[in-house]
Amino acid sequence: MLRTHTCGELRISDVNKQVTLTGWVQRTRDKGSLLWIDLRDRYGVTQLFLEEGKSETSLINTARTLGREFVVKVEGLVAERHSKNMNIPTGEIEIKVSLLEILNSSKTPPFTIEDETDGGEDLRMKYRYLDLRRNPVRESLQLRHKMAQQTRVYLDSLNFIEVETPILIKSTPEGARDFVVPSRMNPGEFYALPQSPQTFKQLLMVSGFDRYYQIVKCFRDEDLRADRQPEFTQIDCEMSFVTQEDILKTFEGLVRHLFKAVKGIELKDVPHMSYADAMKYYGSDKPDTRFEMKFADLNDVAQGKGFGVFDDAQLVVGICAKGCATYTRKQIDELTEFVKRPQVGAKGLVYLRCEANGTFKSSIDKFFDEIELSKFAQKFNAEAGDLILILAGEKDKTRKALSELRLHVAGQLGLRDKSKFAALWVLDFPLFEWDEETKRWNAMHHPFTSPKREDIAILDTDPGNVRANAYDMVLNGTEIGGGSIRIHDRTTQQLMFSKLGFSDEEARKQFGFLMEAFEFGAPPHGGIAFGFDRLCSLFSGADSIRDFIAFPKNNAGRDTMIDTPSTISQAQLNELGIEVKKK
Amino acid sequence: MLRTHTCGELRISDVNKQVTLTGWVQRTRDKGSLLWIDLRDRYGVTQLFLEEGKSETSLINTARTLGREFVVKVEGLVAERHSKNMNIPTGEIEIKVSLLEILNSSKTPPFTIEDETDGGEDLRMKYRYLDLRRNPVRESLQLRHKMAQQTRVYLDSLNFIEVETPILIKSTPEGARDFVVPSRMNPGEFYALPQSPQTFKQLLMVSGFDRYYQIVKCFRDEDLRADRQPEFTQIDCEMSFVTQEDILKTFEGLVRHLFKAVKGIELKDVPHMSYADAMKYYGSDKPDTRFEMKFADLNDVAQGKGFGVFDDAQLVVGICAKGCATYTRKQIDELTEFVKRPQVGAKGLVYLRCEANGTFKSSIDKFFDEIELSKFAQKFNAEAGDLILILAGEKDKTRKALSELRLHVAGQLGLRDKSKFAALWVLDFPLFEWDEETKRWNAMHHPFTSPKREDIAILDTDPGNVRANAYDMVLNGTEIGGGSIRIHDRTTQQLMFSKLGFSDEEARKQFGFLMEAFEFGAPPHGGIAFGFDRLCSLFSGADSIRDFIAFPKNNAGRDTMIDTPSTISQAQLNELGIEVKKK
Question: Collapsing DSSP states into helix, strand and coil, what is residue B130?
Fold first, then answer.
């Protein structure tokens, strides 16, 4: 090694050692006869010291040529500092430099390499290799490494085998759009990149692998919203001979292990909640349970009193914001504006203040007397000082809007504390969801999810109410993982495809291999996949997943650093037997 | 879990326990009133036992319907066997079955699920999920898992961070052919799949990550020879502030750790050999050093005696096959045929038998007397009973042919024992190799490899003799890994591109980001990549890498199980803005 120690390593006990360090110049302070340099590497920062008169002149002169981010090698003696910096582990010592070699120079970086940088998103992405030098970004990727390590420790300990599944697979139109790869050796034919290793992991169960996992890249060619990436990483898992309860227990264990090993946090037990309850009490299949603020249905107390908005509504539903009776008119107007935004979609907001004296102040005083309003308050066990917020309208839309309002108010109240963690299993998802556009039933999870045995009878008559053996894990209001007990026999799988509108021929062409595999002794099996990028960002309390991906793409799917995608040569196109269409 | 124990778990100490097992029916033996079933899962095989009169009739009847590979769940009592099988860990016990449930039936598999199967390669690939049930294949993938685990254990312990680099990157015509991915959001533009994460890992060094690794999928669209796969896995590593010696030490350590942890073998020290010596003494840059049989140059004793074949040759060179003087005429003819095969390319073979009585029997007796022949023998320290084999001709071709002969003879002599392991570092590779077809110099490793400092002076005048800071690790005659100390400054990198025939514009377009990165404080760095599939197969003593890949492709790049590549819909092509060319 060009160094004897890293820049994060030396302590007061190393004083008088002769050492060699390498690293980047973080900053220099030149006080005339005294010169300090902060030398940085991945492991820390160590202070270098030179003194006119004591250090050789040529050394001082070289030191004065150093710019930010120069790469240097220094030799010197470890000495105790006069003025110590107890905020950093190396803060008690400095190096009296006797030799200084510039290993590489640096142009002035386009933004400062500091925790808080002056660089904007675009600039940081173009010079990602400089952005990655900043502590917060490097620490994000170190956290990711640790998360992956600990995931493997846990799953290995339970006899899971990591198996690599192929990246060049087959395109299946079901679900999201595939990225495809033209095959040169098979002109006119294409591979596809996997949206997940779903069918392969199921085949591994058919093979008797019993317990499989993989930390694996997956690909979706979707229009990118903020924080969606065309390539993303999953912790992908599958188990044989299990009940749903076994899977919940095993992967609740994984998340608890990660919290303990990576953050030193004992996660509370992970409660179970049905999809139906999640929708009823939180208006969302991924409720944020760091705080309560549950919905209460108000139809029985709200309807029949002559207030048309309530009387005409399929659902009148509200939340109680504890201690918010002090909200001003302006604040309530702001909430009304919030719910009326097109993304939220409510028509208006009714409020009910529980005053200190036990009376109520409400926007619907005209229609409801004090006794009637007190019945509203009872639904929430509301107390003096609370503020009740009510929406009314079509059931699903109103719930969704109230869910948005709930999160918005909780945010205002500081209830969405990123250092707090609340996990939840949401169970018993519907098997199908209706697609208004194509007028057909889609699989809510995917076509390999098994229906609950007791609901198979209503598959034909009432598909919307068939529940699946499917489960999501939710952390702080974000879905971090989801899975299901799978279908493992050909008959049920065929039935499922036919319900989803596949012709026999389509089903056979796309998934014939899987249905055939089910005829050769497929065991009962199920699994789960966690979104690894998101999981890392949640652990870190970050809003964006970008800093947990070393080289992310922007919202147009571009890597601006290497400038891709880009055109390829006509020779390449010819070899592949494809043409770019003229616009 | 549907089971209380696995099929590999129960021992004599478990006798009288009530247990539930699940698994596959390996075989049934029906002796009239007695019925045995071998139940298999990933963990082992357990014998089930039923007896007419003692077991319920319905149970016996169900058991008699079981076919091979049926999936069942059984409950019963652990009992000591009458006739024990000490070859398997569960061989002392059997289960007296009290309940038998068929979880899934199985059609008769197209080949037997046994260690030695009757299925051919094509059939096994089409039904890979059944092939994976066979012990040798499953064990290969378990070995792979353990290799990956232990690779991570070792590198983690040395502060390496695993960082995922992108799969959707930029196409660069240099090197092998890229797989490309049309971008729907950027019509007419393409991503490429990485042939290796080379530039990204170098950027991570520029970022100060200091020590990086990744077990990562790479892709090459080459015409597939036996045992090449379009997607393959590398252990990819890079370090900053290192000398070549540091890298050799670190990764020799990795391989020694793997041998110790995975196979319990203490690997001998890994010797260093220059590329020049490897070519001189073995005619190969990846010599098999499990055995000696070094080349000896014979020009000085062979030439000038009137034997035209030797006199006209650039090189006369031979090997000594210990104890092979007993080879018959027929055996020597077979060796002559071997070297004359077009793949080997020699014109003929000269032999020299060292007879027991100290005389020589040779095919060139006419031109050389006993004293002259004894000088040949001295070159090898040959003893009575040895057989010397000699080729002559153009230097490089003759060495290559003799290398093939050496391996062939060693194979005949049983010197290529797959349970023995000899590793080797080959160093000081040439920086360039001449491409006869394009009449230009190519990078022997890749364009990021640094030249040896002392050879930079001859870059212009004698490029063929410039040595690189490049190294390969060779195990049993196979290259398992290779790397180099990289260029880390823009000037040298630009010079290198220009020597390789890149215009400034081409270099900038393809690798501008890297050269720019080198201007912002790039540290000295170097690295290595190991071929993981091959490494696993060598550890296992296997000839093929196929069984170390869960779902491999055939030589036409096809996965016959899922039937890919395949056509995609016109709608997909339209969305991507590409057309398939008509033939």
Answer: helix
